[in-house]
Amino acid sequence: MSDQGTVTVSEVLDCIPIGAFHRRLLAICGSAWALDGMEVIIISFTLPVLIEAWTLSGLSAGLLGSASLMGMVLGNWGWGWYADQRGRQVAFQWTVLVYGVFTGLTALAVGFYSGFALRFLTGVGLGGALAVDTSYLSEHLPTDRRGRYLVYLDAFWPVGYVLAVVFAWVFLAALPSGGMITVPVVGAVAGWRLLFAAASFPALLVFVIRSQLRETPYYLARTGDVEGANERLAAIAEENGEEHTPPEIEGVESSAAASVSRLFAPDIRRQTLMIAAAWFAINFGYYGVFIWLPQTVGAAGVVGNVYGYFLLVGLVQFPGYFSAAYLVEKIGRKPTLGSYLVLSGVFTFVFATSMPGVSLFGLGFSGFWPFFGGLLAASFFSLGAWGAIYAYTPELFPTEARATGNGFAGGVGKIAAVIGPILAGALVESGYLAALVPLAIAFAAGGIVVLAFGRETRGEPLR
């Protein structure tokens, strides 16, 4: 209870144990999250096909591969601000529709310019979904489970990665007739077009499911709709089969949505800069590695069915997430995120030095297993770091600026996500060590920043 004898939204949520409502909400949010992951990664498999089909230069290929990430910068910032102004629920729903529609339309692209535009617009929806989803889910969770459930949310990302691998194998490798298939009425269609078309349907289904969701009690209370917040809390308790004590009007403070300048107010400025640096580091390293992963694996001389190796890289991400889910509640958000980022850098360096022909002060490794073992470990820790950063970020900002803060940090990250693959693609002409070491350094530097300047939020109620 608060000092005034009333209860707050956070206190009521803390009195409602995890139950059917929370599991259903996690499934809905997680299904969209998985599709976000599939949409982001799928370009890494289609890019080699498009380079050949459209005779793209190296620069054009890099820009096309980064187009959705560029759109995600705008989506992170724009939809995050919109969610604080107009509500999480409406933004939560429409972001999925945007990326679902433009993913499908990408199947109609006829060259670099139309492909770039459609991938950019897909990214606008994707970036918004990532910014809004964490705010929406976090504002329905009790304090003692919030961090773990937000990591569980991000654990749906490798589900999307696995889906991308399966879809790519079906439409780019398993189809007969050189990747073409005959579609009634339409005729022969390239496999990559069918891949984008197929990828859009699950997102449209999630849009329909999301239309049944309601606004968060935090947002309703913050905007002065105390009755609506009470009804929302009562509905959560009822679905979970628990008794419910609604907050009294005096216990809820309404406030206007904050502008971006709120993120740099003295009370949270340091944490805004810290988490933005962490987002920059994780995006720079992760997308620099994974957008070019098919080419990297090929250059390492891996033989056999490469899709099987990609599948293993995706599967090892699950224990990475689950270990982070345990540690964010056991030892805290700050040490988990910081250490996982540092270890991501260490193992990125390990598999970089095991590439063929690399010899760095005698540290180069030889053979398949040093390369693939380092890659699996880097995948494990980098995706665990993703889970930790999504649990950590919304807890650093007050309710009136939470979605804006999520969007700002994510937008800074997506700028790095654009730079990372382009820089790696440019440096690879000097060798894979030159391309991969900056990514390893970025991972490690981000972890050091978190450990040095981060504030622990484990056990704190949302403000």
UniProtKB/TrEMBL annotation:
GO terms for cellular component: membrane. GO terms for molecular function: transmembrane transporter activity. Residues 25-458 form the Major facilitator superfamily (MFS) profile domain. It is a multi-pass membrane protein. It is found in: Membrane. Gene3D superfamilies: MFS general substrate transporter like domains. This is Major facilitator transporter. It comes from Halococcus saccharolyticus DSM 5350.
